[in-house]
Design goal:
By secondary structure, the protein is an alpha+beta fold. It contains 9 helices and 12 strands. It has 4 domains: 100 residues, Orthogonal Bundle (Helix Hairpins); 48 residues, SH3 type barrels, CATH 2.30.30; 81 residues, Alpha-Beta Plaits (2-Layer Sandwich); 31 residues, no CATH class. A hairpin with a 5-residue loop joins β3 and β4.
Length: 292
């Protein structure tokens, strides 16, 4: 105990000096964190007023916050006597090793930068990217957060997004609704076309330019197929699709235009050489006959 007191007395000045530097270093680190928070909050508020995409704002704020905190840490270490040049060299070597171990994370970071630069989508867009369809909530350093139509949050790695196709359903102000309607071969094609056109043109959501289109697209085994293609504002796509399918069914019924079921003609050969014909409308009947 006496030796410890004696050592403290001999080195009291150096200990006090180191303690002062240590507390100053802590102050530098705390000040750096406060400055990072204040600066990023101020930048976020100002960029929000300038109507810049929220995803871009959060991404830039994350980068600036990280840079300031790292700079404050280096300054604090330098103040307590740590050779930052050697530390930076060690940090670089460690960074290389960590980089090799975290190639996926670095790939996500680089992909996040590419998304910010090329901006294939922005916050609020409904997209299909990385195998997930949903509304973009925010773009972060390593991931992009999407909200699906059934209100699930999905976090998608940025590298998965940039390595696959990106479909942005909100990029253009208008979209074409594609519907295929099959009618019976006995139906009057001209009348059917008029009925289908009447259904979509009577809807106020249908745009006149580009003009809607109704035409025969295929002669299938059991039906004559019509394409029905009205143009609508992007936000009206699904409501228009659902309402049109219901209204088309009702309009065809009112005009006695049949919507056929899949059917086939089966020829039965009897031992006496007689041939009879059986028309099967329900596919389950065909399976039953085939097994008999």
């Amino acid at each position: 105990m006496n030796e410890l007191i004696e050592w403290f007395g001999e080195n009291q000045e150096a200990i006090l000096l180191f303690a002062a530097k240590f507390f100053v270093a802590i102050g530098i680190l705390v000040a750096g964190m406060i400055i990072a928070r204040v600066l990023t909050n101020t930048m976020t508020r100002r960029l929000d007023k300038s109507k810049i995409d929220n995803a871009v704002v959060s991404f830039m704020a994350g980068i600036i916050r990280t840079i300031i905190i790292i700079a404050a840490l280096l300054m604090a270490l330098s103040h307590v006597g740590v050779q930052t040049t050697s530390f930076i060299a060690i940090l670089g070597a460690a960074g290389l090793a960590i980089g090799l171990a975290l190639q996926g994370s670095l790939s996500n970071f680089a992909s996040g930068v590419l998304i910010m630069i090329y901006r294939p989508f922005k916050s609020g867009d409904y997209v299909e990217a990385g195998g997930v369809a949903g509304t973009v909530q925010r773009i972060e350093l390593f991931t992009t957060v999407l909200k699906t139509p059934d209100n699930k949050m999905v976090v998608v790695p940025n590298s998965k997004i940039t390595s696959s196709e990106i479909t942005n359903y909100s990029q253009e102000p208008i979209r074409r609704v594609d519907m295929v309607i099959g009618v019976s071969y006995s139906a009057d094609l001209k009348k059917t076309k008029e009925v289908l056109m009447q259904v979509i043109t009577s809807d106020e959501r249908t745009l006149q330019d580009p003009a809607p289109r109704v035409a025969v697209t295929a002669l299938n085994d059991s039906s004559v197929d019509f394409i029905v293609r009205p143009w609508v504002n992007s936000g009206d796509y699904w409501p228009m699709y659902w309402d049109s399918m219901e209204r088309i069914k009702n309009a065809l019924d009112e005009n006695d235009i049949g919507i056929p079921f899949p059917q086939m003609d089966v020829h039965l050969h009897h031992p006496k050489g007689e041939v009879s014909e059986l028309r099967i409308v329900n596919p389950e009947q065909a399976d039953k006959i085939a097994r008999s």
